[in-house]
Amino acid sequence: MTYRFLTLSVTSLALWAALPLQAQGLRPSTGVAPAAASALTLAPPVQRSVDFIVAVVNAEPITNHEVQREVQRVTQQLAQQRRPAPDPRLLAQQVLQSLIDQKAQLQTARETGIQVDAAAIDQAEQSVARQNQIEVAELHKRLLADGMSVRQFRSQLSEQLTLTRLREREVDARVRVSDLEIDQHLREQQSTVDPTTLQINLAQILVAVPDAATPVQVAALQAKAQRASSRAQAGEDFVALVREFSDAAESAQGGQLGLRTANRYPPLFLDATQNLAVGDVSALVRSGAGFHVLKVVEKISPSLPTLAVTQSRARHILLRPSPQLTEAAARTQLSEFKRRIVGGQADFAALAREYSQDGSAEQGGDLGWASPGMFVPEFEAVMDRLTPGQVSDPLVSRFGVHLIQLTERRKATLSPQEQRETVRAMLREKKLEEAFVTWVQDVRGRAYVELREPPL
Question: Residue 63 belongs to what H/E stretch?
């Protein structure tokens, strides 16, 4: 029987990041990209013949049955995707190495005090059922039919949540993207853009120079153009400067030349603006017509961040677990808040101002308008499923326990700063992948691993 089941693939160590219930956080300093959920058939039980230990990780064994069960699960998943399975011996070796990595990480999580309570496992179980569009009771029936007990399933959920929280703390929270890295990426992208696909809209101030102008007149006109350039680069309204200085025919349109492919602009204009971001103003440009001040109004390219996005505005209440407030107690308290809000007995903003342990509390929990990628993926996944006015169930992140209410959605054009944040999120996702691989190797390197030969 096939149904949607979010699981930790030990071959990819995806860490269940798509599960909308544990890593939902506020807007971090950078975004993070989500791992996708997979649809698969649970492996039937492995025949319980004579078992033996194939590896020991810090005194904890890994058995041949564990390896074969995972090999069978991966093979079935590849078959569903109509992809050829690798050589069984090679696949078994890969699975064993991944199980060793997973065992070492779980040991690290226990040693550092990471715990997952029953309420979090309940919420994970409900999420799996919801994504398969079934009730929890039906999920249990299907698990049993596929040869997995409910206890085994919940144990897997516990391990997946534990590994997710470990990764959030040890990897995700430490990865940062600097402004210099964003600038470098944008320059690289702009320098490699195909002029037949890049579309640009420039606005200009033209101070015309007559053909018969004397050197004195040219110098005066250049000084005039330079005054316009300096004021534009200082942030003055470009449209107002166009009306004051420009001799160009398109002055009535704010000096805009219109969105067109790059190869339809004079090379002089492209050279002056190729390294500029949207909103930037060029240095003074001299052509046969006179002196030009150019502003980049739009740049659209498949390799550059999109300009049009769907933005969400949400608010939240955050409770941080402490010795005085357990995670389960925080979840219970937020569930009560939701009941009162939905029943019209309390106002979300008022509760946020009174109880939320977050900088947004003074604004009633308002997080402002957010573009895709501005929140951590799991928080965003929950928010994206809400309709305006709807309140989520309590959800857990490395920041604490949250209650979210979506207030509005809109279509919007990204500002230059928002485009930079989109690039930041993309670069952070790449750095996370690299940092995760290094971290896994480091955890493995600190573990004592003994590989054992099968009995004769």
Answer: strand 60-63
Can you tell me the distance from the alpha carbon of 156 to that of 162, in angstroms, rounded to the nearest whole number? Answer: 10
Q: What is the DSSP letter of 29?
A: S
Q: Give residue 356's pLDDT band: very low, low, confident or very high (50, 70, 90).
A: very high
Average pLDDT, the chain: 81
Coil, helix or strand at residue 60: strand
- Per-residue model confidence as pLDDT tens digits over 260-311: 888 888 889 988 988 787 788 999 999 999 999 999 888 776 655 555 678 8
pLDDT digits (tens, 9 = 90+) for 208-252: 999 899 999 999 999 999 999 999 998 888 989 999 999 988 777
Average pLDDT over residues 198-203: 86
Q: Are strands 290-300 and 199-208 parallel, antiparallel or unpaired?
A: antiparallel
Confidence of residue 105 (pLDDT cuts 50, 70, 90): very high
Q: Supply φ then ψ for residue 135, to 5 degrees.
A: -85, 160
Q: Is 444 exposed, middle or buried (0-12, 13-18, 19+ CB in 10 A)?
A: middle
CA distance 83 to 76: 10
Q: Specify the pairing of strand 199-208 against strand 60-63.
A: unpaired
Q: Are 309 and 412 in contact (CB under 8 A)?
A: yes
| Amino acid occupying residue 213 | A
Write b or e for each residue in 307-340: b if 16 or more Cβ atoms lie within 10 A of its Cβ, otherwise e: bebebbbbbbbbbeeeeeeebeebbebbeebbee
The reported pTM is 0.52
CB count, 10 Å around CB of 237? 11
Taken as a whole, the chain contains a residue count of 456
Taken in order of first residue, the domains within the chain and their CATH numbers are 3-177+434-451 (1.10.4030.10), 194-300 (3.10.50.40), 308-413 (3.10.50.40)
